[in-house]
Structure formats: C-alpha cells, structure tokens
Specification:
With about 240 residues, the chain is an alpha+beta fold. The chain is built from five helices and ten strands. The protein has helices spanning about 10-50, 55-60, 60-70, 125-130, 175-185, and strands spanning about 75-80, 90-95, 105, 135-140, 150-160, 165-175, 195, 200-205, 225, 230-235.
Length: about 240
C-alpha cells in the first residue's frame, strides 16, 4: 500500500521513516518561508497605507528585514515590480548578512538606460511567483546579482490593494548551509536520495549520479516523496528498480 503523495508502491514499513525525513526537510525550509511570509505581510501593509509608494517609504521596512537575517537566511527583502514606485523605475529593498556578521544593503544599477542595468524580471525567483501566483524555490544557482555564491532563493508574490502583482518577497539561503543540514538527513536513509525542485533541478544529494544543480528529468527507477507543502520532492533510488 502506498502512502498518500508517494509516487510508487514502496513497502509500507519503509514509508513512515522515509516520509519523516522528507517532512523534516520540508519543515526546515518552512522556517525560511515564514520569513518570506512576514516580509510579504509587511510589504502588503505598507502598500495598503501608501497609494503611491517611493523608495523612502519602502525604507520603513529596513528594521524588520534586518532582524530576519540569521540562521539559514543570508539575504531578505522585497523586489518591486517595475513601475510600482513613483521615484525609480525598479527597486530591491534588500539586506544581506556578510561573512563578518555585518548587515549591508544590496545596491544595484537599476536604471534601464545604463549598460550596467540589472534586469531581475527574468530570474526564476521573480518570474515563478509572478507567473504562478504561488511561492517558489529557485536554484541552486550562482547568485551573480547578490553574492556570487551558490544559492537557493525562496520567494512569494506580493499583491497591491487592487490585487495587481506588486513584486516578490524573498529570502536567500547559501546552498552550502542548506546541504550542511539536509545531506546528513538524506544519508540516514537506506538508499541514495536527492531533493529536486519543480523544474527538475537537484538541490541536495547523496549520490554522485545526481549532483546539486543537475537537471533530473527522468526520475525512474525511483520513489518520490513530497516535502510537506514545500515545492520540493525527495527522490530515493532503490536498487533493482
């Protein structure tokens, strides 16, 4: 008998502990999504109160954003939809935790008229929440925009008072930090396993055949388990299948 959400007929006595690992990993990332959700609510409240927001008004978010940094979260903020603000064409109200524990803002060239313009609208962490209306996990990818680190970004859409898309609330996690907690959990399983996002990108793994960053389009022979409500699946490779 297969457990709910399990993609194959894994043995019933294996399902509970394996699914428990998947749920635990999902719970770990839920703590990061909780940061994203608090950020989303703060931005929504500000947009409800300010009909024509500016960068100086978004600056009111800074104390709350800075307080969210720590643990797995190394970057957090709000990425405005182009045209949302009245004083600039685009903006990231984004704060980062440096290796020396100092907190600093992310400063980018966001003027479309310049050659150094950083167009963030094509990145998955922005486009997926915008296009689906759902929270998303993007990566792992080299974060050339912020840190040049191999990273994951967890994001959720933000909507204005009229229901229109206003941008995304998001948080960054260094992949090495996530692997430090996720890989030991995967190694406790009886068989090699890896985590994969909805685009088929491997996020963490205990098998050399599926490395982080690889695309895993063919998941057979394998058994997959949902990681709670997180948009990841845990894939366990069973010998002879």
């Amino acid at each position: 008998m297969a457990a709910t959400g399990v993609s194959s007929d894994a043995r019933a006595d294996d399902i509970a502990p394996v699914a428990g690992v998947a749920d635990a990993i999902g719970g770990l990332l839920e703590t990061v999504f909780a940061v994203v959700e608090r950020t989303r609510r703060s931005v929504t409240s500000l947009l409800d109160a300010v009909p024509e927001p500016t960068t100086s008004q978004l600056a009111r978010l800074q104390p709350g954003l800075r307080s969210e940094l720590g643990g797995l979260v190394v970057g957090v903020g709000f990425v405005a939809a182009p045209g949302l603000l009245t004083d600039v064409p685009a903006w990231l109200e984004w704060w980062q935790l440096r290796a020396d524990a100092r907190v600093q803002p992310l400063l980018l060239d966001l003027d479309p008229a310049t050659s150094a313009y950083s167009d963030y609208t094509h990145w998955d962490w922005y486009a997926l929440p915008r296009d689906t209306g759902q929270r998303a996990i993007s990566g792992p990818y080299v974060d050339y925009l912020c840190t040049d680190e191999y990273s994951l970004t967890l994001a959720a859409p933000v909507h204005g008072p009229d229901g229109s898309f206003a941008g995304v609330a998001a948080a960054d996690v260094y992949l090495r930090h996530f692997e430090a907690v996720a890989v030991p959990a995967l190694r406790a399983l009886a068989h090699p396993a890896f985590l994969v996002n909805p685009r088929g990108r491997v996020v963490a793994s205990t098998t050399a055949s599926r490395l982080p960053g690889d695309l895993a389009r063919d998941l057979t022979p394998a058994t997959t388990y949902p990681c709670g409500d997180i948009p990841l699946r845990m894939v366990m490779i069973q010998p002879g299948r």
